[in-house]
Write a structure and sequence with these properties.
By secondary structure, this protein is an all-alpha fold. The chain is built from 3 helices and no strands.
Length: 74
């Protein structure tokens, strides 16, 4: 197998983490909205946890993108 082809395959596999991050963010916001509609009084207390979960999930997605770019260009 050619080295360039192996790099492309490896970067594509590493970029799958971006899709996982997108699914995770969707689930986080869907569950927050579900909980906030069921109990509107608790929504302000849950908002901090929402932002923490969002930040961690996005950080993992950006890390996956970084690894894919490192595989491609090194």
């Amino acid at each position: 197998m050619d080295l360039a082809a192996a790099k492309m395959i490896g970067a594509g596999i590493a970029a799958i983490g971006m899709g996982g991050a997108a699914i995770g963010v969707g689930l986080i916001f869907a569950n927050f909205l579900n909980g906030a509609l069921r109990n509107p009084g608790a929504a302000p207390k849950l908002f901090g946890n929402l932002m923490l979960g969002f930040a961690v999930t996005e950080a993992l997605g950006i890390f996956a993108l970084l690894i894919a770019l490192l595989i491609l260009f090194t």
